[in-house]
Amino acid sequence: DNVTIDNTGGLLMNVTLDGNNCVERLTVNKDEYRFFYADGRLIAWEKTLKDMNFGAEALHARGTIEYKDGDIASITYSENNDDPTYYYCTPSSLYNVNGLLPETLSKQIGCFGFEHLYYAGLMGKATKHLVRIIQIDYPEEAKRDDYQIEFNYSINKEEQTELCTYNFNGEAASVNYFY
Q: Which pairs count as long-range contacts for 165-168, CB under 8 Å and 24+ apart, including other chains?
């Protein structure tokens, strides 16, 4: 099925859904995204951003996602022909009852700017648990230090996540969720 999405930004968006009603292909103007699934979960994606002036490929990014017991175990992310960056996820004991996208990983999961498609259930199943720790390992060529992000959550009496706090690049961050 093909679906055209109207938006206030004037972008021309077209979505092709697979047989399980998950996004298989997404085009935004001339940019193309492809998504791949197994057992109802997003396992790989790739995007090609085009130069708006000449139509040449300006960026090619891809990611693969591995799961363990319904939770993201690792993400391998790369842009163009650069060596990949690895993201290792440790789940918390809290169930992901609201199907939340792991904070800070939209780009690596392939849905940056399209989180609404994830939350609409169009990008496969959410993780079983909330993410507790993300360990980021850069390739040597990146000349960047590896680091990790630790997440803390507050839940309400219905066990819904209301708050996520973490430090990112030395800065405190928080996300409030409203239902």
A: 166/103, 166/104, 168/104
What's the average model confidence in pLDDT over 8-19?
A: 86
Q: Dihedral through CA 152, CA 177, CA 33, CA 107, nearest 10?
A: -30
pLDDT above 90 covers a percentage of the chain that reads 68
Q: What is the DSSP annotation of the chain?
A: -EEEE--TT---EEEEE-TTS-EEEEEETTEEEEEEEETTEEEEEEEEEEPTTT--EEEEEEEEEEEETTEEEEEEEEETTPPPEEEEEEEEEEE-TT-PPPTT-HHHHT-TT-HHHHHTTTT-PPPSEEEEEEEEE--GGG----EEEE-EEEE-TT--EEEEEEEETTEEEEEE---
Asked whether 22 and 124 are in contact (CB, 8 A), the reply is: yes
Question: Each residue of 29-59: pLDDT tens digit?
Answer: 888 999 999 999 999 999 998 866 665 667 8
Prediction pTM value: 0.89
pLDDT tens, position by position, 118-158: 999 999 999 999 999 999 999 887 788 889 999 999 999 99
In whole angstroms, what is the distance from residue 22 CA to residue 41 CA?
9
